[in-house]
Amino acid sequence: MRRALIALFTLLLGAGAVLTAAWGLAAPSHDRAWPPVYERVATVAHTPHGVRLGNVRNWSYAPDGTPAARDWITARLDEDDLVRVWFLMEPFSDNPAIAHTMLAFEFAGGAAYVASVEARRETGESYSALRGALWPAYEYLWVWSTERDAYANSTWYTEDQLYLYPLDLPPEDARAVLRRVLADTARVEDKPRWYNTLLANCTNVLARAVNAGGGPRGLPWDISWVLPGYADSFLAREGYIAAPEGFAAAERAAHITPLIPAAYEQSDPAAFSRRLRALMGG
Description:
282 residues; alpha+beta; six-stranded antiparallel sheet
């Protein structure tokens, strides 16, 4: 028994050393064979009139999920025009712990843009949560898109459900979150970074941006940082999502998937976002 324990300990120690060496020696890169959806890196340039955000995805999709047009645009963001920050939940598994999370930034005039931290997979590469936790398998990328693109992608391409929650943030805190997300987008543009299922995923990168915002409230560590499917209920408990009639009612009100086809009739991205919020009753 003692020999077996020693052998097991030695095996685990060796495996740990191999993994540590792999993370230490491997270098993340922007220069790989990327599929079209990941081929461009969002760019951030500060101007006297705000931020010029380049390589914002504004694709259109056919009802079968096929990309009908692959347009990339440049957005001009002025934090003084920021109206609200929204939290997006996209479950993609029967397991309630599994989901993708994003932020949407709504500006005066109706324009709204989605910021999504994603594992940047190479052409032909599939996603594995276990592989992403143990091995430097994927870089992470800030994918910025119009709401029209992002929500149609989820509805017809990945066929997932979407929940859109308004975040209860004071205006200065909301602007601070936008600044921090743009700052990390710029850092990734300048230097690629590794994705990690546990330490640098779609949710905890966003959470760190909120915590770095400098507002009076912060997000304590929660299991939802590694199990994003619980992130919306966590934010409700922390007071970031209003739920005066209980979380179940807030979740029902946030379910936007049935509304997307009607809003998608608007070909202009800002008109789509305005129409969607009108359908939500906002």
